[in-house]
Amino acid sequence: MKKALSVILALIMVFSLFSVAAAAEDELKVVIANDMHYNIKASTAVTKRNSIDEDFSHIGSSGRLVNESAAIISAFLEKVGNSDCDYVFIPGDFTETGSEEELSAFALILSDFEAKYGKQVYVVPGNHDLYDLTLDEFRAMFAQFGYSEALVKDTASASYTVDLDGEYRLIAIDSCEAGESPYGFDDARMNWVKAQAEKAKADGKKLIAMMHHNLIAHFILGTKIHPGAIISSGNSAYPEEFAKAGIKYVFSGHTHDHDIASYTAADGSVIYDVVTASLTGPSCPYRVVTFGDEVKLETKNIDAIDLSLLPEGISENALALAESDFIAYSMKATDLSFRILFNSYTSAAGLKRILKTDDEEMQAIIAKVADKLSEAIRMPLNKENEVEEGKSIEALVEKYNTVIPDSSYTDMLDLAITVYQAHNLGDEYYPAYTDEVVIVTRSLAAAISYALEDVSGEEYAKVLSFLTSLTGFTVPVDYLIYAGDGMKRFEGIEILVTTALLPAIVEFTVDDAPADNNVTLPGYAQLVEEEEELTFWEKLEAFFIRIFDAIRTVFAFLPFWK
Hints:
Elements: H1 2-26, E1 28-32, H2 69-81, E2 87-90, H3 100-117, E3 120-123, H4 135-141, E4 152-153, E5 160-163, E6 168-173, H5 187-202, E7 206-211, H6 222-225, H7 238-244, E8 249-252, E9 259-264, E10 270-275, E11 285-291, E12 294-301, H8 316-324, H9 326-345, H10 348-354, H11 360-377, H12 393-399, H13 412-425, H14 435-451, H15 457-471, H16 477-480, H17 486-509, E13 519-522, H18 536-556
Parallel strand pairs: 1-2, 2-3, 6-7, 7-8, 8-10
Antiparallel strand pairs: 1-11, 4-5, 5-6, 9-10, 11-12, 12-13
Helix pairs in contact: 8-9, 9-13, 10-11, 11-14, 12-14, 13-14, 14-17
């Protein structure tokens, strides 16, 4: 009897080992890197100069590490080559200029990687990759990275499908219009995607999609700030069509945010748009995605590079930081780069470009107030740092009978860049009651009020109407014509900012579920999201958290609360 039981137990163990092996074989591990912006000229010579920081005078205004791109890409490929991943996906903007020279050099880098490590790379173009080459030339140059083994190729774009290990099929979607930054996705391309989805379903395959532009907006003002980056800006039905097609995961880029957002279709099925930030941006991130019963997403970073691959002309202090802590180097360099960029945006000319409108009356008002608005945005936050008495945000808000919290931020740009970098990194968390959001809203209200001091009541109402239109909110006409003395105007602006703009600001500064960096999400077997019933104590905890947050927010925005 014991002998028989031993045999049975042994058989069970053997079958268990087989089942574990089978489960492991069913897993698919993919690495995704986006927006590398390989710049062949900047990687061999420092060409950009600025006066913002002596040690980082090589940093330009792109918000990316252009001089370091070759070294970062080399470090990335070495890390991935030595990992246990099955495939590498690159959803566009792998080059900066899209020149034939740059594309050819990048294709050679990928070819050497595949030859050395035996891992397959799949690409799809971004808007930066289609400036010089025709579609046929692009397909030919990158033939070994998807096109030569494609099951189906779209004749009208650089889209294709290819089978991966197990039951998965990649649908690589060209969302670009050659030579243009806005998306080139249209109904014809949507029909091609649907046709490939039907074929995949008939073949028993699960579709994984990648494309350069985003499928959906990842925050309220996404379609306002990046209208050409989100394909659903052109047709709000596209996410529904993708979900109906059985696509559960889309990997995209372009906006350089590190963010995961979802869309729930009418039938309850959920599709995830996973944006991976620029590999040459802050902290140099990429994703490792493991597909199985569930989908596990991890964020990795380039934490060291070969300094010998950097061009001459970078200061010794900057190189020392790059050698000791490359992530810290990337954060400082991109912080300075964003400051250069934001400085250009907040100049009077920059503001006119950003606030452009077809309304001639509004154009005249913008031209009238742009200089003062730019002046206010550039003022120091605290009175102790004033160059001219009364010219600080603290002095302005005090003039309007309110205060801003104490902080170490130097000016509005300093704060804005801190929050923007946090958004780039993902899992950002600045709720409405935090000093950062209180300072942003009150400073913005003060800056707008300062700029509008000399406008007429009619012009003032026109500006309020324009600002609310940016957020999609509708404000009663009676409110818009509320234009009394300077203090009343500030109260009107502050009410507008804290009621209409605050939800949009907080939606940008607080990441909603799911997490952006490290998270486990449903696999393809679970096509419809199932909400788990919360326990009584979980419901009670959630209730008190909401109440507590609401109270903290109210107190944070009391005029006297500091």
